[in-house]
Automatic annotation (TrEMBL):
Every Signal transduction histidine kinase subgroup 3 dimerisation and phosphoacceptor domain range: 181-246
Catalysed reaction, written as an equation: ATP + protein L-histidine = ADP + protein N-phospho-L-histidine
Origin superkingdom: Bacteria
Organism in which the protein naturally occurs: Nonomuraea phyllanthi
Protein name: histidine kinase
UniProt keyword annotation of Nucleotide-binding present: yes
Residue ranges occupied by any Histidine kinase/HSP90-like ATPase domain in the UniProt entry: 293-382
Residue ranges constituting the DUF7134 domain according to the UniProt record: 15-141
GO cellular component: membrane
Residues making up the signal peptide according to the UniProt record: none
Length: 383
């Protein structure tokens, strides 16, 4: 309801701004009618019309209109009709408009000018002290009302600008969060797809080699390929589900962590890579993110071994927890074949590994071993 009322108020203000001259002319006519009914103007009507016509320009030129109205009022009192009251109303409306639309340094000279006219009227035209006090009170009320409305409008404008700024910041944060989420999903997709494809390729190569001598082993390799493919499809479905509107359950799917490392090791061994996993120390209390980071780093390291090491390579994973951190070391002997030179920045897998480690103030070191193979060492700060 409040939003609807605010929207209607904004629409009304916009319409008034678009037809400012017509609205001011309507107000000038209304003031003239009220003054005419109250004063019963018959004689001197030309100056009456001219004085009220000044109010048509009161918002576009408030300073000029005020001083013109005050000068006209003085002339009317001095020459045409000393006792009429309607100039007071026009001067007060002009003073209110001046206080409403212009800063303080325009208001003080105007107030002094009006008060000077009142004092002159008190001395020359026989205005009583009661009338002088009433005119001064009207002067103060008009000026104070204009200043109050101006300050309130400035405050409302400031609040609206702040709201727009907060909305822009919120939209920027949403875009940044969406970008970070896309990067996270891309990294997860790479880890899942690259690892499972590497396992499937290794299984297929092993099955092809074993098929002539052992059809049973070839059939087992095909079964393992099918199982790996189904597992890969399931993980991809979970990740892609995050991108679909309304699929809330995708975020609730369990993420792999330290408990799934043994399953990962068995999967790699089934692909034909002899692998040893060594654990040292007791892990601290890990959140889901830390466990997933360690799992993905080990997975990426083993994927690289499956893809690049020789066919007779062996691998070793050492996971050590100490001093609130985790040391992950993944090595292979290259299968008797020296590894080709590589840089840590090449490939999405290595850069993704570095990004995961950086989230825990970690360091990643990639380097070839002296004889053959590679060593990946990652240090994470978990507490």
């Amino acid at each position: 309801m409040a939003t609807f009322v605010g929207a209607k108020a904004d629409a009304i203000r916009a319409a008034v701004c678009r037809h400012e001259r017509g609205v001011d002319a309507l107000w000038a006519a209304l003031v003239a009618v009220v003054d005419g009914l109250a004063a019963g103007v018959v004689a001197g009507w030309p100056q009456f019309v001219v004085l009220h016509a000044l109010l048509v320009w009161r918002r576009r030129a408030p300073v000029t209109v005020f001083w013109a109205a005050l000068a006209s009022a003085v002339l009317i009192w001095a020459v045409a009709a000393p006792g009429v009251v309607y100039p007071v109303v026009v001067v007060l409306v002009a003073l209110y408009t001046l206080a409403r639309h212009r800063p303080w340094h325009h208001l003080w000279p105007a107030a002094v000018g009006v008060e000077g006219v009142w004092v002159t009227a008190l001395a020359v035209n026989g205005v009583t002290w009661e009338e002088f006090a009433a005119l001064t009170a009207f002067l103060a009320a008009g000026g104070l009302l204009g200043v109050t409305v101006r300050l309130r409008q400035a405050h409302v404008t400031q609040l609206r600008e702040r709201a727009r700024q907060l909305e822009r910041e919120r939209d920027q944060q949403v875009r940044m969060a969406a970008s970070a989420e896309r990067v996270r999903i891309a990294r997860e997709m790479h880890d899942v797809v690259a690892h499972n494809l590497a396992v499937m390729v290794a299984l297929a190569d092993g099955g092809a080699l074993a098929a002539p001598a052992s059809p049973q082993r070839a059939a087992e390799a095909l079964s393992a390929i099918a199982a790996t493919g189904r597992r890969s499809l399931g993980e991809m479905h979970r990740l892609l589900g995050v991108l679909r509107d309304g699929e809330v359950t995708a975020e609730l799917s369990p993420q792999p962590d330290l408990d799934q490392l043994d399953t990962l090791v068995e999967q790699v061994r089934a692909a034909g890579l002899p692998l040893t996993l060594t654990r040292e120390g007791d892990p601290p209390e890990l959140g889901e993110g830390a466990g997933l980071t360690i799992y993905r780093i080990v997975q990426e390291g083993l994927t690289n071994i499956l893809k690049h090491a020789g066919p007779r390579a062996t691998a070793r994973v050492r996971l050590r927890f100490a001093s609130g951190g985790a040391d992950i070391e993944i090595t292979d002997d290259g299968g008797g074949r020296r590894a080709a030179p590589a840089l840590p920045g090449r490939g999405h897998g290595l850069s993704g590994m570095a990004e995961r480690a950086a989230a825990y103030h970690g360091q990643v070191d990639f380097r070839p071993l002296a004889e053959a193979g590679w060593r990946v060492h990652v240090r994470l700060r978990l507490t």
